[in-house]
Amino acid sequence: MVSRRALIVVLAALTVAPLVAQAPKGWKLRVDRSTSASDPDAAGSIKFMQMGSMMHAVNPQAAVYWNPSNTASGNYTLKGTFTLMKPSGHTNYYGLVFGGSNLEGANQSYTYFLVAQDGTWLVKKRDGEAASDVLPKTPNAAVKKPDASGKSVNALEVRVGADKIDYVVNGTVVQSSPKAGVKTDGIYGFRVNHLLEVGIEGLAVSK
Questions:
Q1: Cβ-contact 158, 185 below 8 angstroms
Q2: What's the Cα-to-Cα distance from 74 to each of 184, 186, 207, rounded to whole Å?
Q3: Which CATH number belongs to the domain containing residue 181 in this structure?
Q4: I need a labelling partner for 203 at 20 to 30 A (CA). Which of 25, 53, 80, 164 fits?
Q5: Is 6 helix (H, G, I), strand (E, B) or coil?
């Protein structure tokens, strides 16, 4: 016979479990489906959950994630710590999005600073369906690669100054570039490319 106390514990566990996997309140995502026959998306749907202090994204397809209330302008530092839980079978990128606008529309626009499991980083900008390089794919020892368990942790920063932008990985400035020509005012969030499982913590802006 199950005691009353044991029954309460079981019921409490059943009540808490669904809450752990809820989607973060106020957040939206836009799926970016692959059009490459040689690099297709995986089957299934994206899963986006709040798990304690960490947001957890499982991405069969690539996606951009944002909360419309999260905006930054002027001079600021955007930070986020990314834990790669499960790398893909080939190089795929994940990281910060900033200067975003019209993220649900055909004329979406944002800049993104990403790292990958092969120890490289890059900066790109998105205008509608077109993506172009701001700073090309570059290797740097500051970018941590997956360990024997397949995990890696990379703390990323975008430091927007009056006339330049510093791109930072784990405290190391991997590149500085002129601010001119890069849209930095707008919505911030993050991007996870397809076939990746990533945890995100500490996503925030400071002046």
A1: no
A2: 8, 10, 9
A3: 2.60.120.560
A4: 164
A5: helix
E strand map for 20-171: 28-32, 47-51, 54-59, 62-72, 76-86, 93-101, 109-116, 120-127, 130-139, 152-160, 164-169
Confirm if 95 and 143 have CB atoms less than 8 A apart: no
DSSP for 70-112 reads EEE-SSEEEEEEEEEEE--SS--EEEEEEEEE-TTSTT-EEEE
How far is CA 87 from its chain centroid?
Answer: 14
What is the tally of structural domains in the chain? Answer: 1
Over 80: is that where the pLDDT of 146 sits? yes
Residue identified by tokens 């994940």 is 94
**Tens of pLDDT, residues 147-156:** 999 999 999 9
Question: pLDDT tens across 6-52, in order?
Answer: 444 443 333 333 334 578 999 999 999 887 877 788 889 999 999 99
CB crowding 156-166: b at 16 or more within 10 Å, else e: bbbbbeeeebe
Provide the greatest CA pair distance for the chain.
Answer: 72
